[in-house]
């Protein structure tokens, strides 16, 4: 499993702290479910598939906020109008992109560019898996069932 920078982990802890206070219970449950099942999707299909799944079942504009958002608190306003499942997928994708950006492994600014560059990239998949494992544990810890 790939190393995740301590400052990225601190950011993710702050992220889940903010989301645990700001999300409705059903959206918390959806995000928690996504955090638990997405690592398997990564293993079998890769990061590009995970990102596309989050955009397809969520909202590509919300997912893309991970490129430039400085705080997960900003995600709270972006999910208004989405149902609980759409919000869960979109938030997961946005958090993952934010983490990858902060980890310094993606520099692209467009969703399509990240998808293309991550196709068949086992190194990026490995780094993403390490990050996704932390996201999973944080979701399990901060987001009640």
Task: Describe the protein in words.
- The protein has 145 residues and is mainly alpha-helical.
- It has 8 helices and no strands.
- The chain has helices at 6-22, 25-45, 47-57, 60-64, 75-78, 84-103, 111-118, 122-142.
- Helix 2 (25-45) crosses helix 6, helix 3 packs antiparallel against helix 7 and helix 6 packs across helix 8 (122-142).
- The longest helix has 21 residues, at 25-45.
- 41% of the residues are buried.
Secondary structure blueprint with pairings:
Elements lengths: L5 H17 L2 H21 L1 H11 L2 H5 L10 H4 L5 H20 L7 H8 L3 H21 L3
Helix pairs in contact: 1-6, 1-8, 2-3, 2-6, 2-8, 3-6, 3-7, 6-8
Shape: globular
Ends apart, CA distance between termini: 27 Å
The tally of strands reads 0
Radius of gyration equals: 13 Å
SSE string, helices as H and strands as E: HHHHHHHH
Please estimate the helix content: over 70%
What's the tally of helices? 8
Task: Pick out the low-confidence regions.
Answer: none
Give the class from helix and strand content and strand pairing. mainly alpha
Oligomer: single chain
Largest sheet: none
How many domains in all? Answer: 1
β content, as a range?
A: under 5%
Please tell me the overall pLDDT: 95
Quick recap:
This protein has helices at residues 6-22, 25-45, 47-57, 60-64, 75-78, 84-103, 111-118, 122-142.
Based on the model shown, name its key terms.
145 residues, mainly alpha, 8 helices, 0% strand, globular
């Amino acid at each position: 499993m790939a190393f995740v920078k301590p400052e990225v982990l601190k950011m993710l802890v702050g992220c889940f702290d903010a989301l645990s206070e700001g999300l409705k219970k059903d959206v918390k449950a959806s995000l928690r479910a996504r955090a638990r099942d997405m690592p398997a999707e990564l293993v079998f299909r890769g990061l590009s598939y995970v990102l596309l799944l989050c955009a397809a079942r969520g909202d590509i504009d919300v997912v893309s906020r991970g490129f430039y958002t400085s705080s997960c608190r900003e995600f709270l306003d972006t999910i208004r109008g989405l149902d609980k499942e759409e919000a869960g997928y979109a938030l997961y994708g946005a958090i993952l992109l934010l983490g990858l950006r902060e980890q310094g492994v993606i520099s692209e600014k467009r969703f399509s560019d990240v998808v293309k560059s991550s196709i068949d990239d086992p190194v990026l998949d490995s780094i993403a898996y390490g990050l996704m494992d932390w996201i999973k544990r944080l979701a399990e810890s901060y987001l009640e069932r």
